[in-house]
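Support request from a user on the community tier.

User writes: "When I paste my structure tokens into the form, the page sometimes reloads and wipes my input. The last time it worked, I copied everything first. Here is what I submitted, just in case something in the input itself triggers the reload:"
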């Protein structure tokens, strides 16, 4: 498989007059998204992902039938997503960067890495490129550490659902990346105490001895700033590093938020809750959409903070907790058969003894519609019926 295009790739250069359509999901000017890999010198083009992150893609298209599905990326309206479109696809640069040791690559992908390695060697021999220190893994190539993080003694982690992003410094010092004065970066901060709070979250598991050592040292938990916006627009404002005045404006500076890595960022894990951050008691009220309410119902799962504004039954479970409860109910059904517990309904004391971690909503009582729907997922495995 041949690599389309020649040369190491274009330089960012100066900006020309341009604008971004207000309906475009990406707010990055293409002239600002073209550059070189700091480890191999080959050209890359940065694209936004739907989770608020960014991914560097090789500036060439490849025939999709020659690329394994797990390597395929497509671009639509400036947003990158896994998969292929119209028979062509892009390759993520971290997967083919010659500065990284790759194992088990398909033959066609190895050919691409070999070509890029030759280009890297030519740049080094000519003195046109000086590489940075070797990266630890592909995640570091995908999202390099920002220059503002160099020498930072404290870096806060931001949490939104399952996403963990680390700031270049303290959360309140995170600066907007949009344009303020003509040609200058906005000086306003992204931080707003009314839209978040400090909370304990799980540390992502990391492979190897180093990862296990970190998990044991910190007991698998750390403090992170959890953004708690009222709508998706405010959530993307945080993830795209914008102040409230520039939530939908074009970006003048590259983002400084990167995905949290347990190995790379373990020095910045917080054991204790930072002081001096008070969550606002009164929150801004917004008109509720049809079929919803302004009040937020929290998930009945133990320790879960997910919620919904759609009217739901008591004991409602979110998309993350419902599968866990289904598995627990399935396991309980097998245990009940083995231990011959009372049938059809066990005593509350017996049920609490065998399933101490189930929410109170799943103890014996009159079943709600939500509970009947949850049980439907495990009824085939436990034909004797649910434990309520």
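"...and here is what came back when it finally went through:"
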């Amino acid at each position: 498989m041949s690599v389309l295009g020649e040369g190491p790739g274009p330089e960012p250069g100066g900006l020309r007059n341009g604008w971004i359509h207000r309906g475009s999901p990406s707010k990055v000017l293409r002239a600002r998204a073209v550059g070189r890999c700091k480890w191999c010198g080959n050209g890359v083009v940065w694209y936004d992902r739907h989770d608020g992150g960014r991914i560097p893609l090789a500036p060439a298209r490849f025939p999709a039938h020659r690329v394994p599905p797990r390597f395929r990326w497509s671009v639509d309206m400036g947003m990158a997503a896994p998969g292929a479109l119209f028979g062509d696809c892009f390759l993520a640069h971290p997967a083919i960067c010659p500065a990284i040791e790759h194992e088990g690559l398909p033959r066609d992908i190895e050919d691409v890495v070999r070509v890029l390695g030759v280009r890297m060697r030519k740049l080094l021999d000519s003195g046109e490129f000086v590489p940075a220190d070797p990266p630890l893994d592909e995640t570091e190539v995908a999202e390099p550490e920002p220059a503002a993080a160099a020498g930072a003694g404290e870096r806060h982690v931001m949490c939104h659902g399952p996403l963990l992003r680390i700031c270049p410094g303290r959360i309140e010092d995170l600066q907007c990346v949009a344009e303020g004065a003509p040609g200058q970066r906005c000086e306003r901060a992204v931080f707003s105490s009314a839209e978040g709070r400090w909370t304990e979250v799980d540390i992502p598991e990391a492979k190897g001895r180093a990862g296990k050592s970190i998990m044991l040292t910190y007991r698998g938990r750390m403090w992170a700033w959890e953004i708690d916006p009222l709508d998706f627009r405010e959530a993307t404002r945080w993830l795209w590093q914008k102040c409230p005045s520039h939530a939908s404006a074009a970006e003048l500076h590259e983002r400084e938020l990167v995905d949290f890595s347990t190995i790379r960022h373990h020095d910045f894990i917080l054991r204790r809750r930072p002081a001096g951050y008070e969550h606002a008691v009164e929150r801004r009220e917004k008109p509720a959409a049809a079929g919803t309410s302004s009040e937020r119902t929290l998930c009945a799962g133990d320790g879960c903070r997910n919620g919904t504004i759609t009217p739901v039954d008591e004991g409602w479970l979110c998309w993350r907790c419902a599968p866990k409860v289904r598995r627990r109910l399935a396991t309980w059904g097998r245990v009940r058969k083995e231990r011959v517990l009372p049938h059809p309904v066990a005593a509350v004391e017996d049920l609490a003894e065998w399933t101490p971690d189930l929410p109170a909503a799943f103890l014996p009582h009159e079943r709600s519609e939500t509970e009947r729907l949850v049980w439907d997922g495990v009824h085939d495995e436990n034909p004797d019926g649910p434990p309520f």
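Agent notes: The reload is a front-end session timeout and is unrelated to the input. The chain has a mean pLDDT of 78. The chain is about 20% helix and 15% strand. Escalated to web team.
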